[in-house]
């Protein structure tokens, strides 16, 4: 008893103790929560009662809360989470996404753009898009709705805006708590650019989210999505599979949060491949749908136009 309490107090030996707790936790997750034929996002039927939460099968009505708990739990260490998950490459992917979209009111145009960044929590993409529009086209008129289902994530975005002294209490920028599957506060045919970055795979009903993106865009509006995808090179895929096994353990060591990182890995594995997701975008009504795989397909940019 005395020895074990001394051991527990010693910071030098804390790490192995914590590790063994994480592995116990990992075994518990895998033993107790074995999935029973979870539905895939592409085979889900309207009216179906169950969906997947990572590798688990859960009631559709509970998934939103479970996803909410994950992001509330990682909200204040959000950058750290992204850096751990992507080895820091997410910054390059986001930069490429913004440059490729190349949006902003052109100098010869009189009409500012209405952007909406869904699942935008941290504000990374929204602020990047506005910065790009200003620095490249001198556009300081276009508006931005940053929408997220999770108020904690939006608070992080607002905090970031305040810290950087830009876009905080800016009349052009609105932070809105809303479900991307519905966006009930957003009028139909009202947006020029719809972006969603590393968010749509968390939706309970991805197709519904795509249909809603189509609804809120004006004719001529552009849908642009950055999301984890399927690695096309078998060797890279093997390396990634190994990395994915380590990630939750790293998540628990760095952020003391095994379960959230485990969910994130599993949600990536469940997300449809490039061609399947492209066909879902087309099913929503978008034309000229296409994609670009990044870093061997670890993630991909998808797009489509509402005509
Ligand atoms: C991994 S974060 C991405 C944040 C940011 N877009 C980025 O690229 O850094 C995923 C976000 O999706 C949000 N989210 C999950 N389900 C959502 C839904 N149904 N509607 C809106 N946001 C959702 C989460 O709250 C979280 O903020």
Automatic annotation (TrEMBL):
Keywords: Membrane, Methyltransferase, Mitochondrion, Mitochondrion inner membrane, S-adenosyl-L-methionine, Transferase, Ubiquinone biosynthesis
InterPro entries: SAM-dependent_MTases_sf (IPR029063), UbiE/COQ5_MeTrFase (IPR004033), UbiE/COQ5_MeTrFase_CS (IPR023576)
Gene Ontology terms: cellular component: extrinsic component of mitochondrial inner membrane
The reaction(s) this protein catalyses: 2-methoxy-6-(all-trans-hexaprenyl)benzene-1,4-diol + S-adenosyl-L-methionine = 5-methoxy-2-methyl-3-(all-trans-hexaprenyl)benzene-1,4-diol + S-adenosyl-L-homocysteine + H(+)
Magnesium among keywords: no
Amino-acid positions noted as binding S-adenosyl-L-methionine in the UniProt annotation, renumbered to this chain: 122, 148, 179-180, 197
A Pfam cross-reference name: Ubie_methyltran
Pathway: Cofactor biosynthesis; ubiquinone biosynthesis
Gene Ontology terms for molecular function: 2-methoxy-6-polyprenyl-1,4-benzoquinol methyltransferase activity
Principal subcellular localisation of the protein: mitochondrion
Compartments (UniProt record): Mitochondrion inner membrane
Subunit structure, as described in the record: Component of a multi-subunit COQ enzyme complex, composed of at least COQ3, COQ4, COQ5, COQ6, COQ7 and COQ9. Interacts with COQ3.
Descriptive protein name: 2-methoxy-6-polyprenyl-1,4-benzoquinol methylase, mitochondrial
Organism: Saccharomyces kudriavzevii (strain ATCC MYA-4449 / AS 2.2408 / CBS 8840 / NBRC 1802 / NCYC 2889) (Yeast)
Recorded name of the encoding gene: YML110C
């Amino acid at each position: 008893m005395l020895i074990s309490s001394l051991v527990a107090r010693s910071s030098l030996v804390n790490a192995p103790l914590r590790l063994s707790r994480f592995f116990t936790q990992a075994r518990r997750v895998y033993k107790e929560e074995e999935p029973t034929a979870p539905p895939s996002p592409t085979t889900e039927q309207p009216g179906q009662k169950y969906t997947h939460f990572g590798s688990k099968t859960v009631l559709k009505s509970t998934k939103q809360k479970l996803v909410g708990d994950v992001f509330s739990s990682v909200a204040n260490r959000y950058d750290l989470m992204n850096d751990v998950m992507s080895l820091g490459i997410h910054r390059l992917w986001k930069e490429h996404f913004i440059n490729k979209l190349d949006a902003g009111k052109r100098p010869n145009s009189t009409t500012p753009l209405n952007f909406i960044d869904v699942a935008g929590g941290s504000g990374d993409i929204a602020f990047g898009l506005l910065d790009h529009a200003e620095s490249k086209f001198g556009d300081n008129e276009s508006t931005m709705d940053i929408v997220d289902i999770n108020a904690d994530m939006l608070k992080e975005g607002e905090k970031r805006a305040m810290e950087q002294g830009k876009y905080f209490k800016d009349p052009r920028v609105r932070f809105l708590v809303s479900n991307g599957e519905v966006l009930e506060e957003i009028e139909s045919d009202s947006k020029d650019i719809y972006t969603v970055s590393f968010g749509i795979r968390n939706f309970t009903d991805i197709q519904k989210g795509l249909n809603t993106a189509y609804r809120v865009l004006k004719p001529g509006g552009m849908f642009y999505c950055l999301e984890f995808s399927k690695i096309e090179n078998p060797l890279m895929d093997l390396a990634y599979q190994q990395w994915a096994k380590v990630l939750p353990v790293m998540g628990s060591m760095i952020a003391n949060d095994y379960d959230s990182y485990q969910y994130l890995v599993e949600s990536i594995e469940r997300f449809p491949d490039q061609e399947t997701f492209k066909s879902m975008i087309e099913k929503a009504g978008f034309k000229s749908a296409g994609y670009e795989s990044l870093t061997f397909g670890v993630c991909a940019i998808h797009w489509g136009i509402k005509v």
